[in-house]
Amino acid sequence: MKKIKMEIMLFISLMGVFALFFFILTLHQYMEIDRSKIFSQDVDPLPMKKPTVLESGFELPVEGATGYASISLNVRENVDDFSNVVLQLNPGDGFVILEETGDFWKIRRLNQEGYVRHKNCLINLPDVMPSIIYNISNSKASLMKSLGKNIPNITGQKLYDVYDFNERLNREEYAVPVLYSMAKKIAVAQRKALENKNTLVIYEAFRPADVQKAVVSNLMNLASQDMEVKEGISRSPWSTTWFINTGVSNHQKGLAIDVSLAKVIDTSKDQIGDYEYQKIEEYEEYEMPTPMHELSVLAVRFTVPISSASKTAWQTATFTDSMNTPAKELQTYCTDAGLTPLASEWWHYNDLDSVSEENGTGNFYITEIYSQVPKRSES
C-alpha cells in the first residue's frame, strides 16, 4: 500500500514538471512571435514628434531665452505692478525667460522667480533669431576707422567681450541684446530677407556707455592731429555727432543696430530643442557703400541731415550717389519692418517706437548668458 502511494506521488510530481515545461515552452514561443511582430515592417514604429516650425515672428520662442534689465526693475510675485517685490534687477542683470503673459515675462534669476514688465527689458537676439549672421566686431577686433585711417586705441581692439558658449544654441555665439520691442521688428526684416535669399549681418546692437565714450575721445584726439579726419567728420552740412554720438546714443538704450546684408549661398534645417529653423551654412556679404563703421562723410546715406527723431522724414530724403542696390535693399527690409534709417550711416537703424523717457543709459557690460533649450508647450 505504501509503495502504491509513493508511485502515485511520483506520477503527480512528474505530471507537474511536464506541465511547467509545457507552459515555459508555450510562453517562449509566444514571446518569439510577439517580438517578430514588433520588428516586422508591417508594424509602424513609435511616431516621432515632429519639430515645430514657427511661421512668423521669432524663429524660436522667448521661453528659455536670456533677457536683461535695461534699467532698474522690480520683479514681483504676481503679474501686476502691486504685489510683493521678490527681487530687484540692476541695469545689465541677466535672467532666463520662463514664459510670457501679456506685458510681463516670468523670469528666474539667482533661483528666484517672479514677473517683470518686458517693456524695459532687452532680449538676446540669437536666442530667438538664430538664422541671422552675428559678427559683433567690437567684441573681437573693432573695424572703426575714419577716412580709412585707424583710430588709436580703438581700431583692431576688443572693446568688450560678449562671445561665449550658448547652451540653448549648443555653440559659441555673441550676446546681442536689443529691446524686446525692437527684436520683433528685426525678426520681420530677417524673414523678408530670407524670402529673397538674403540675410541680415548684424555688427553691433547694445554698446556699453564706457565704450561709446572711449570711441568719442579717441576719434576727437585723432581729429585734433589730422585735419583731413577733422574735415571728414565735420564737413557742412554734417557735424561730428552724426558719426559718433557724444552723449547717450541709441546703442546704449538698446534700440539701435548696425547691420549689413549678405547673399545666402547654402542653408540646412537645424533643430534646437523642439523647434526647427533655416540655418545659414554659407553666405557672401554684398559690397556696400563703405566698409562697416567708417566714421566719416564717406558713409552718409542721404545728401543732407534729417531729424534722427522723425519716423517719416527719411521717406522724402535723397540718396547719395554711393548708396548702391544692396544698401537700398537692406533699407527696404528694415524700414518695411518699422525701423528708421540714420541719415549719416548706411548701416544704422533705430526703433523710434521704443524711445521713451524710461530708456536706459547703458552704464553696464553684458557678462551673463542664461539661455536654455526651448521645449514645446504640451498644452
Beta-strand residue percentage: 15-25%
Low-pLDDT segments, ≥5 res? 1-6, 20-25, 30-43
Number of helices: 7
The helix content, as a percent range, equals: 25-40%
Name of the CATH first level of the domain at 130-354: Alpha Beta
CATH architecture annotation of the domain at 130-354 = 2-Layer Sandwich
Mean pLDDT equals 90
**Biggest beta sheet summary:** 6 strands, antiparallel
Give the SSE order as H and E letters. Answer: HEEEEEEEHEEEEEEHEHHHEEHEE
**Ends apart, CA distance between termini:** 76 Å
- Shape, principal axes of CA atoms: globular
Q: Remind me, CATH topology of the domain at 130-354?
A: Muramoyl-pentapeptide Carboxypeptidase, domain 2
Strand order of the largest sheet: 6-5-4-1-7-13
Structural class: alpha+beta
Q: Please report the total strand number as a whole number.
A: 18
Radius of gyration: 31 Å
Give an account of the 3D structure.
This protein is an alpha+beta fold. 26% of the residues lie in helices and 25% in strands. It contains seven helices and 18 strands. Strand 15 (256-272) and strand 16 (275-285) form a beta hairpin. The chain is globular and about 60 Å long.
Brief account:
The chain is an alpha+beta fold. It has seven helices and 18 strands. The protein has helices at 2-39, 125-128, 180-195, 209-225, 227-232, 250-253, 325-336; strands spanning 66-69, 73-76, 85-89, 94-101, 104-109, 112-117, 121-124, 133-134, 145-146, 149-150, 163-166, 171-174, 177-179, 198-204, 256-272, 275-285, 340-341, 348-350.
